[in-house]
Amino acid sequence: MSSEHNHISGEKIKFQYWSRNLPHLFDVNKPVFITYRMKYDLPKHVMEDYARRVDEYNKELDALGTKEREEKKRIKDAKFFTWFDELLAKAPDVPNLLQRDDIREVIAESFHYFDNQRYKLLAYSIMPNHIHVLILPKTQENGDIFPIQHIIYTWKKYTALAINRLIGKTGNFWQKEGYDHLVRDDSELANVLNYILMNPVKAGLVQQWQEWKGNYLSQDLI
């Protein structure tokens, strides 16, 4: 992992880091939406359904005019993420360990531990096999934000050890790859918060988002 930042006319611009050779850009004073899941093999039917949707979307792109194609390309990554998340949440043949009370509490503790130190914890949803979390990274004394990948690493390391002790196993508990997205404005923030909190409702686990034990919303946003 490497990071860098630049200044133009004394004004700080975006931070960049690489995770598994993929570039990510983050800004100061903007929330970051993060998703990661347990380590397991995805069911064949889930991947086939996902591949079919992606293929159909790309075919539709090719048939559009230039302006419409560019607009659809702009939302492509978010669309693909939403599809994958929906398929994951509703798949009946994937592990659902994270809904155990003791495991959920370990994960929640990891999020709250550095709240108001390395980041402001805004919201999360601990789903049965994956996690959505929204944070606002805090700025260090040198002006840099606390590195997003290091924050995620500390969550995963602490919880993997604790959860493995609870289930009597060893080895990797979390999938290495994940998804992160810079929330650029208030409108997008509202959409992301709604997406996180309504995740268990859309998955058919509860009728109201407040009923899901794994949901959290900062009092600052209520």
User: For this entry, what is the oligomeric state of its chains?
Assistant: single chain
Here the CATH topology of the largest domain equals Alpha-Beta Plaits
**Strand portion:** 15-25%
Overall geometry:
globular
Instruction: Give the rounded overall mean pLDDT.
Output: 84
H/I helix tally: 6
Low-confidence stretches: 1-23
In the CATH hierarchy, the architecture of the largest domain is 2-Layer Sandwich
Run of helices and strands: EEEEEEHHHHEEHEHE
Rg over C-alpha atoms, rounded to the nearest angstrom: 18 Å
- Widest beta sheet: strand line-up: 9-6-8-7-10
According to CATH, the homologous superfamily of the largest domain is Transposase IS200-like
- Kindly provide the name of the CATH class of the largest domain: Alpha Beta
Q: Supply the number of structural domains.
A: 2
End-to-end separation = 36 Å
Give a short synopsis of this structure:
The protein contains 6 helices and 10 strands, in the order E-E-E-E-E-E-H-H-H-H-E-E-H-E-H-E. The chain has helices at residues 44-63, 66-74, 76-90, 101-113, 148-167, 186-202; strands spanning 3-4, 7-8, 11-12, 15-19, 22-26, 32-37, 119-126, 130-137, 179-182, 215-217. Helix 1 runs antiparallel to helix 3 (76-90) and helix 4 packs antiparallel against helix 5 (148-167).
